[in-house]
Amino acid sequence: MLNKNIETFIGCDNEYEESKIVIFGAPFDSTTSFRPGTRFASKTMRSESFGIETYSPYQDKDLEDTTLFDGGDLELSFGNTSRALGQIEAFTDQVLADGKIPCMIGGEHLVTLGTVRSMVKQYPDLHVIQFDAHTDLRDDYLEESLSHATVIRRVWDLLGDDKIFQFGIRSGDRSEFKWGKGHVYTNKFNFNGLENVVEKLQGKPVYLTIDLDVLDPSVFPGTGTPEAGGVSFMELLNAILTVSNLNIVGCDVNELSPVYDQSGVSTAVACKVLRELLLAIESK
Hints:
single chain; eight-stranded parallel beta sheet; 10 strands; alpha/beta; Arginase, Chain A; two-stranded antiparallel sheet
């Protein structure tokens, strides 16, 4: 008997009802300010994930031993940013209502706003940890308030002061850094101080958003806005493992733009980051 050919991220083919984590793609890049292409990330990652193993020698864990469901890509309104965010929010609402952890593959970083809008309804005391090269704290970009350059400012609109913790930041407008000093925690260039933040957030609901351009472009060139001076893969992995000790109630990985790295290395890195993230939080 033949079965339907349904492509999922490697090792994430469990049934929805039995799964703890629900993976879904948000292929949206309509507000990208420099080089578009992140809408192709989730589909490419699913296909290329079969070039890595389900087993992680870093954690001695295997995706085959987990309960993970890949729900595929959302059909988003590319020409309507507000509607696309609403579609992401509505899907996340359903995942949370079913008692599961959403894990989104972007897409540009603005898609995070859709999930956070849903998360904060379920978890009013939500805190956000952001791994990123960019502050994303502009109030508007080219007179648009909804942009991947404004996403964390819009998240702050929902959460308020002392709820957002940024690491790896090495780019932004001067005004963003100035405004951020009074409203968010920002650690520039690396993950120094992450252990102290993790200790502070014990018992709190935490959303983890990973903009893959936190990685140095020598490791991860396939992104829309590459920034020199980033972290290594192992530094990011160790940061993920550190944060996994918290109550992670949702997460995302975003800003892979596979068309800018024809070697496929950036996609392979993104797949490995996602594998390690899933294994780290699924077993908690």
